[in-house]
C-alpha cells in the first residue's frame, strides 16, 4: 500500500495540514511500532512504551519552547472548548488555595473564541466579567482590532482577578495579539491564562510570562483530540492546597476529575486513557520542528509567509479588502474578502483548480481565510500569492 | 514503507489490539483519504467528507446493534472517566425536565469502574447513593460476584431515581452482568444508564432496555480518544426542557458545554472539534464487523473463545485459581491467578516467548488477565489455551 502523496496546499483553519513525513511515519507506527508487532494505538497507556511517548512529548515540547523549570507540561483530551471549559474552575480553586477567597475571572474579548470562553465561564456560573470587548473600541463595532493598552489598563488596577484570559490568536477573525499586555505581564498578582490553539509553535515566546498556556493540537501540533497545557507549578500547588469546604461554601463548581489539573499531572497525563497514537503524532511533529531548526527557524518562515501574502493582498486595495487592523493581523489566519463578492465562487473554483484548497472563510464571517500554519511551506504560500495576484489582475 | 505485520496475539485490557486490515486502511487514509491528496485527520470537522464519516459511523453502529428509532447515537471526546463524569449532570437535568424535581443517582457497584463512577458523582456533589456494593454480599468481601436480584431489588422500590448506573463488564475485576436486572428494565420510571466500555459489540443486546449506553472506544471499537453514546431521545428532550432557574435553585451543577448532550447532538457530534481520524478508525471497525457477519457471528466467536479459556483454566483447579463467580465471569476479561505465585514471572516470560502478551493482571488485583476482545481470533485464543495447559502440565 502506498503512503506517497503530492505535497498538499491546504489552507484550512484546522484540523490542518500536517507534514507529510510525520504522517508517513505515524501510519507505519499505527500498524507496527518499533517492531513490537503491535501498533502504538494498541498498547496500554501505562505501558513502558506509552510512558516513553508521553515523556518524549513533554521533553521535546520543553526543548522547542524553552520552557522554564517553573512550568509543568501536561496533556488532556479535548480541544479548545474543553480547554476553556475546565480552566476556570481549576484557576478559581488555585486562587482560593493561595488567598483563601474567591477572585474574579477576567476575559479580554477580541474575537469569537475569547467570547465563547467568557460565555462558558458565565454558563458555568463562575464569577466572570469581560475586562474589555474590542468591539467597544472599534469604529465599526466589529472584531478586527485590539485597543491600545492605555485604553483599558485602568480597568484591571486594584481588581482581584483569579486570572485574566485571552486568546492569543483569534482563528475565526484573524486577529492576533502583537504582544502580551504589559499591564498583566508585569503584575505579579495576576495570572495570565492564554489560549494558544492556533499560534502555538508559530514563533518564539517567553513562556515565563504566562500562568497557563492551553492549546488544542489540531493546527500546528497534530491531530484533533488532545490539548497541550503549560502551567506554572505554583498554580498547581495552589489548586491542590485549596480547602474543599471553603470551595463548597464559596460555591465554586468542582472540576470533572479527568480535567482536574493536579490529578492529571500526578498521573503523568494518563489518568483518563490518553490517546497515545494522537500523542505520538504530536511528538513526531515536535521532533520534525526541532530537526528543521526549532522555533527560530519556524519564526522566520512564518513571518515570511505572512508578509508575502499580506503584501500581495494589500497591493490590490480596490480588489481585496482586509478587515483586520494592521497592528494585530494574524500571521496564522489571513482573513480577506473580495470587494466584488460576486466573484467569490469563481475565486474558490480557480484556486481549487490549482490545488489551493481550504480557503473559504468561517461561516460567521464570510469571505476567505488562508491559514498559514507551520506545515505550509514558503513555496506553497508563494503559489497562493501568485494565484491571488493573477486573479486580481484578471478580474480587476 | 511496509504496512505488513504478523497477526498479533496481545491480550491487553485496553487500549486493545485492533484488526490488522482496519489499521492498514486507516494508515493509508491518514496520509491520503479517498485520493483527496490530504489525510482524513487534516480536513475540517465540518467538511463534507468529515460529516460523511460521522454519518457513516452512526449508520453502521445502528445497523450493527440494531438500534431502534427511539434512541439517538452520538460521539464525544474522552474515555470512560470523561463519560461517567459528565453523565450525572446530564441525567439529573433530564429528570428535572421531566418531573420538575431532583432525583437520586443510584449506583450498582460491582467492581472498580462502577465504584469510580459513584465516587465521581459524590465528588461532583450530586445526590448520589450506592444501591448495593457487591462486596457486602460476597463471602470474602471482595469484588468477584453479583448478588441475586432478590437480595437487593427491594432497595429500589419507591425510590425517585434520576437514573441507575451500572458497569456491564468490570474490566479490572473480570465481572460481567449476565443480564440486565429485571427490576430496573421493567420499571418505566427508572432510566438504566450503563457503561459498556469493555463489552460493547461483544454480543447482541436489546438496546431498547437502556436509557443511556456509554462506551469508550479503546477496547472493541477503536483507538482511545472517543466515547460512543446511545441515548433515548426522550431523555434528550427532557434535558433540553429543564428550567435553568430550577436547576440553579436545586444546586445541580452545569455540565461543561462540550459534554452537554443536547448541544453535542444538535451539532452532530462536532461541537467540540471531533477527532475525525479516530472516528474513521471506529467506522472501519464497524464495517469490518458487519462484513464478517455482524454481532450474531461475533457473539458465537466470543462465546467460544471464553468457553475455551475458562475450561482450560478450570481443568487445573490445583494450579489456576479463578476469583470470579461462575455466573458473572466476564467473556471479555478472563481474570486468574496461579496458586503458586512464585511462578508468576515464569508464566509471563514463557508466554511472551510465544508472542502471547498483555497478560499481566491489573496492578490493583495482581495475577493475570486475558482480554478476549473482538480482534482476538478464535485461533489466537486457542494458542493461549494450549500455552495455559502446557504450562500447568509442566509445573503442576
UniProtKB/TrEMBL annotation, chains A, B:
Any Pfam family the entry gives: Aminotran_5
Entry cofactors: pyridoxal 5'-phosphate
Catalytic activity: O-phospho-L-serine + 2-oxoglutarate = 3-phosphooxypyruvate + L-glutamate; 4-(phosphooxy)-L-threonine + 2-oxoglutarate = (R)-3-hydroxy-2-oxo-4-phosphooxybutanoate + L-glutamate
Keywords in alphabetical order: Amino-acid biosynthesis, Aminotransferase, Pyridoxal phosphate, Serine biosynthesis, Transferase
Signal peptide stretch: none
EC numbers on record: 2.6.1.52
Superkingdom: Eukaryota
Gene3D superfamilies: Aspartate Aminotransferase, domain 1, Type I PLP-dependent aspartate aminotransferase-like (Major domain)
InterPro entries referenced in this protein's UniProt entry, alphabetically: Aminotrans_V_dom (IPR000192), Aminotrans_V_PyrdxlP_BS (IPR020578), Pser_aminoTfrase (IPR022278), PyrdxlP-dep_Trfase (IPR015424), PyrdxlP-dep_Trfase_major (IPR015421), PyrdxlP-dep_Trfase_small (IPR015422)
The protein, known as: Phosphoserine aminotransferase
Organism, scientific name: Huiozyma naganishii (strain ATCC MYA-139 / BCRC 22969 / CBS 8797 / KCTC 17520 / NBRC 10181 / NCYC 3082 / Yp74L-3)
Amino acid at each position: 500500500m502506498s503512503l506517497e502523496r503530492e505535497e498538499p496546499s491546504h489552507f484550512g483553519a484546522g484540523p490542518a495540514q500536517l507534514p507529510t513525513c510525520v504522517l508517513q511515519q505515524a501510519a507505519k507506527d499505527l500498524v507496527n511500532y518499533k517492531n513490537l508487532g503491535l501498533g502504538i494505538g494498541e498498547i496500554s497507556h501505562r505501558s513502558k512504551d506509552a510512558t516513553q511517548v508521553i515523556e518524549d512529548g513533554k521533553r521535546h515540547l520543553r526543548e522547542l519552547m524553552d520552557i522554564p523549570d517553573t512550568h509543568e507540561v501536561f496533556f488532556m483530551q479535548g480541544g479548545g472548548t474543553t480547554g476553556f471549559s475546565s480552566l476556570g474552575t481549576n484557576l478559581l480553586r488555585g486562587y482560593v488555595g493561595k488567598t483563601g477567597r474567591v477572585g474574579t475571572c477576567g476575559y479580554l474579548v477580541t474575537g469569537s473564541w475569547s467570547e465563547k470562553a467568557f460565555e462558558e465561564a458565565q454558563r458555568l456560573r463562575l464569577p466572570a466579567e469581560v475586562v474589555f470587548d474590542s468591539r467597544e473600541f472599534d469604529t465599526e463595532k466589529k472584531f478586527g482590532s485590539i485597543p491600545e493598552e492605555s485604553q483599558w489598563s485602568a480597568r484591571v488596577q486594584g481588581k482581584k482577578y483569579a486570572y485574566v484570559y485571552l486568546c492569543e490568536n483569534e482563528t475565526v477573525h484573524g486577529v492576533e495579539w502583537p504582544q502580551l499586555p504589559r499591564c498583566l505581564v508585569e503584575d505579579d498578582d495576576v495570572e495570565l491564562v492564554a489560549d494558544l490553539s492556533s499560534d502555538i509553535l508559530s514563533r518564539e515566546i517567553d513562556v515565563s510570562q504566562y500562568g497557563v498556556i492551553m492549546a488544542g493540537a489540531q493546527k500546528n501540533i497534530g491531530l484533533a483530540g488532545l490539548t497541550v497545557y503549560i502551567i506554572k507549578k505554583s498554580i498547581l500547588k495552589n489548586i491542590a492546597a485549596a480547602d474543599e469546604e471553603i470551595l463548597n461554601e464559596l460555591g465554586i463548581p468542582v472540576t470533572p476529575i479527568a480535567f482536574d489539573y493536579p490529578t492529571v499531572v500526578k498521573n503523568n497525563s494518563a489518568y483518563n486513557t490518553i490517546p497515545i497514537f494522537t500523542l505520538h503524532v504530536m511528538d513526531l511533529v515536535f521532533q520534525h520542528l526541532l530537526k528543521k531548526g526549532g522555533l527560530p527557524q519556524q519564526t522566520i518562515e512564518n513571518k515570511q509567509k505572512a508578509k508575502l501574502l499580506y503584501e500581495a493582498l494589500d497591493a490590490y486595495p480596490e480588489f481585496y479588502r482586509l478587515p483586520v487592523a494592521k497592528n494585530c493581523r494574524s500571521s496564522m489566519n489571513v482573513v480577506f474578502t473580495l470587494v466584488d463578492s460576486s466573484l467569490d465562487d469563481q475565486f474558490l473554483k480557480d484556486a481549487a483548480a490549482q490545488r489551493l484548497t481550504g480557503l473559504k472563510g468561517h461561516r460567521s464571517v464570510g469571505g476567505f481565510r488562508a491559514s498559514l500554519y507551520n506545515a505550509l511551506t514558503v513555496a506553497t504560500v508563494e503559489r497562493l500569492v501568485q494565484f491571488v495576484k493573477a486573479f486580481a489582475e484578471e478580474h480587476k
